[in-house]
Amino acid sequence: GFDFICLFWCFLFLKTGHICYALALFLFQGVLSNISSITDLGGFDPVWLFLVVGGVMFILGFAGCIGALRENTFLLKFFSVFLGIIFFLELTAGVLAFVFKDWIKDQLYFFINNNIRAYRDDIDLQNLIDFTQEYWQCCGAFGADDWNLNIYFNCTDSNASRERCGVPFSCCTKDPAEDVINTQCGYDARQKPEVDQQIVIYTKGCVPQFEKWLQDNLTIVAGIFIGIALLQIFGICLAQNLVSDIEAVRASW
């Protein structure tokens, strides 16, 4: 049964590679196509990350499937060694993320603020920030006043926009009785006293809300990462056991 289980496991890697390629193609066709302009990555487009991950997963899955079908120990060893390298890289990334959590927090703050500046410039980035603010019930990176960074929403006297001193509709608190979104609900919201603002819009920033979400779901997030790690270790053990069985049979010839 090791060959069948290993074959099934490698097939999962193939499908993961296909999913990553499909997602990368979807992003390249327009969704978040300008994301590199608002990240501090030296012009690197994160979409390439999906292509690389998809390519690696596809190659590993292909090597494992062919190795299991043809009983090719070289391909099976290739599969297990590189799966071990991926596991080590993931472990290293987790440790670095914990050590440099303040840097990650700064990058998230930088990303959100740059997105705020470009809010009206790209519809995909606009949809991203609206989804983020609605999902985490937040407004701006650290508060609603971060929308002063946007030329349409800032409170300067020279701003002739009707959205002056306002916020996007995604910052507004939701009324369950409303079936249609009121896209003008954020108009003049930041001109009101702070007590009144809390009734109309979310006043907490998205960075603190994201941190709170991680703390509230720490068990689930940790469980997912531990589960992925155990599955990878399981895949390495399967490949090594299959290699041992093949070599044992060949030695008896």
UniProtKB/TrEMBL annotation:
The keyword Plastid does not apply. Keywords: Cell membrane, Disulfide bond, Glycoprotein, Membrane, Transmembrane, Transmembrane helix. The chain crosses the membrane at residues 46-69, 81-100, 220-243. It comes from the Eukaryota. It is a multi-pass membrane protein. Disulfide bonds join 138-171, 139-155. PROSITE patterns: TM4_1. It is found in: Cell membrane; Membrane. GO terms for cellular component: plasma membrane. Pfam families: Tetraspanin (PF00335). Belongs to the tetraspanin (TM4SF) family. This is Tetraspanin.
